[in-house]
Specification:
FAD/NAD(P)-binding domain, elongated, seven-stranded antiparallel sheet, alpha+beta, seven-stranded mixed sheet, 2 domains, Elongation Factor Tu (Ef-tu), domain 3
């Protein structure tokens, strides 16, 4: 059999485009390395699925702003909420962690929605893609079989969460067709610290509201001290923009900021500026702890229909592209928006 469309990856972007193609006359296959679909959706937001954000805009993303804005404008947070409501899923804004974040009752309900919405798609689970070649049609070599398709959509994600099947296959495919891949690094991840910040470790488990300056951004939110260094929502978003060098932490972001006794005791003999404490992170916790990866397929080599400018019939969507959002529902929205944008 030669499929009209093959989709690699059953995450947010892959499931979105598969559901869009579900009721067409096209023969479509969805290839997933895991034994189940939507594994990352299921665990996102601590299992509650932080699915989108009230304040959606390209300002909350790392990547080409014009490209991002164009994709988001065609399927924004309101379109996604309407889509979910039509399938009896009603996310609510819960701002305890990040301002404007919409959470579902569970990630499982979203996955179940997609399971019903792709019932006409030929689903191939436990199928790992090894290589892709093109000679008039795409030939996809997997660990179990050879799949042929007229068009190929790469929705395989990035390198974060290797425990649920993350791999470099999307980048490998892109490279084989001549695409530029910007450096792929862990993002939305905690920092390890230098010797000067080893006092952080004595405060493991303590959380404080802070304001952080990184590059040209100001991030506000909670910072968590850990036995490895620091994490928490503010640090995770900071990691998206941090390259190398210093960040500045304001431990007193508000007039009524409260510093716990444990914190005061830890800094008692340290000469630090509480409103402008500069640190140079040693590194981060790596891909195994990162929520997403940043970097990927260069967006200037992809048109606004998500099709490769270098190979007709080849599409890239979701996290495999060089587009990464902040913490708070931005990355799932990007997955759904980019998946919905594809028109075949």
């Amino acid at each position: 059999m030669i499929y009209d469309v093959a989709i690699i990856g059953a995450g947010a972007s892959g499931l979105m485009v598969a559901s869009k193609l579900n009721n067409t006359d096209k023969k479509v296959t969805l290839i997933e390395s895991n034994s189940k679909i939507g594994q990352k959706i299921k665990i996102s937001g601590g299992g509650k699925c932080n699915i989108t954000n009230k304040y959606m805009s390209s300002d909350h993303f790392l990547g080409n702003k014009q490209f991002i804005e164009s994709v988001l404008s065609r399927f924004d947070q309101n379109d996604l909420l309407k889509y979910l409501n039509n399938h009896n899923i009603y996310p609510k804004v819960i701002e305890k962690i990040v301002k404007g974040t919409y959470f579902c009752n569970s990630g499982t309900e979203v996955v179940e929605m997609f399971r019903k919405n792709i019932k006409n798609i030929d689903l191939k689970l436990n199928t790992k893609v090894k290589d892709v070649k093109f000679d008039n049609i795409f030939t996809i070599e997997t660990n179990t079989t050879q799949i042929k398709a007229k068009k190929l959509i790469v929705a395989s994600g990035g390198l974060a969460y290797p425990a649920i099947g993350a791999s470099s296959i999307g980048f490998d495919i892109a490279k084989s067709f001549g695409h530029t891949i910007s450096r792929v690094d862990p993002a939305l991840v905690g920092f390890t610290v230098q010797k000067d910040q080893f006092w952080f470790k004595s405060l493991s488990g303590l959380s404080l509201d802070v304001q952080i300056k990184v590059e040209n951004k100001i991030i506000e939110g909670s910072m968590l001290f850990t036995h490895k260094g620091c994490s928490g929502p503010a640090i995770l978003t900071t990691s998206l923009y941090w390259k190398k060098g210093q960040i500045s932490i304001n431990f007193l972001p508000k007039k009524d900021s409260y510093l716990p006794k444990r914190f005061k005791k830890a800094i008692k003999d340290l000469n630090i500026d509480l409103k402008d404490y500069k640190i140079s992170p040693a590194g981060n916790f790596g891909f195994t702890k990162a929520e997403v990866s940043k970097g990927g397929v260069a967006t200037d080599e992809v048109d606004l229909n998500m099709e490769s400018k270098l190979q007709k019939g080849l599409y890239f969507i979701g996290e495999v592209l060089d587009v990464t959002g902040e913490l708070g529902g931005y990355n799932l929205q990007w997955g759904f928006s980019s998946g919905n944008t594809v028109n075949i």
